[in-house]
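Note to self: keep these together.
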Amino acid sequence: MAIALTQSAAERVKTFLAARGHGVGLRLGVRKTGCSGFAYVVNYADDAQPGDVVFEDQGVKVFVDRGSLELIDGTTVDFVRQGLNEAFRFQNPNVRGECGCGESFSV
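Structure:
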């Protein structure tokens, strides 16, 4: 089981946490929603929660609850800028379909 970060994603998390002045890493999860069933949830973690699985990549800790992990195991998280837009993007090997807008996925 693993979650990986690209260099761009790791740098974004480090920069944001430094500017924020607190936090210990990135929290990833999923929630049921959208046209395809699930959507990614991204937050900055201030501490570990009971049931979290913790990964570390490129000097960044990634916290994932066990329920979400089975849906995103093996995912690589990237951070991309396109014009004025910037966002985390997910390369999830478990995805079997995505909605047209790219906001939700199915496994």
